[in-house]
């Protein structure tokens, strides 16, 4: 397990900046990690895994940048408010959500509003939305 935080923020909950994941490793790989932790190269297993992931992201940074540009993705945190979605709906337009990072659909967005204003959802990372909105958009998630 890498880090904590996969719940959508409530009114008093702080916004999380990470997502919890689980990975399976072979015993030999895990032993190598534990050896490097024991010898002080890393603070713990999580530190090793985060460092390895960041190194791979850095290694492929140019290819990722080109892909983000080619796919017209919003990078980082993107919030979608009720007012923004109501304006789109009222204008007869629909939104194609494309985010690399975290997409947050506000808690006060209803399932009906989401269906009326959102044509598709592509999130490479995490999507935080109410269970009702997730269900309403289930056929639009890519």
UniProtKB/TrEMBL annotation:
InterPro entries noted in UniProt: RHH_8 (IPR041088), Ribbon_hlx_hlx (IPR010985)
Organism domain of life: Bacteria
Name of the protein in its database record: CopG family transcriptional regulator
Source species of the chain: Rhodopila globiformis (Rhodopseudomonas globiformis)
Protein's GO biological process: regulation of DNA-templated transcription
């Amino acid at each position: 397990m890498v880090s904590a935080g996969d719940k959508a923020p409530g009114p008093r909950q702080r916004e999380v900046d990470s997502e919890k994941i689980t990975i399976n490793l072979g015993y030999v790989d895990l032993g190598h990690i534990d050896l490097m932790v024991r010898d002080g190269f890393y603070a713990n297993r999580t530190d090793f895994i985060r460092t390895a992931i960041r190194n791979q992201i850095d290694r492929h940074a140019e290819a990722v940048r080109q892909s983000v540009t080619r796919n017209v993705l919003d990078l980082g945190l993107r919030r979608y408010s009720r007012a923004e979605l109501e304006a789109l709906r009222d204008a007869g337009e629909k939104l194609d959500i494309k985010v690399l990072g975290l997409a947050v659909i506000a808690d006060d967005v209803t399932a009906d509003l989401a269906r009326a204003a959102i044509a598709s959802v592509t999130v490479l990372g995490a999507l935080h939305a109410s269970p009702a909105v997730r269900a309403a958009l289930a056929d639009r998630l890519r």
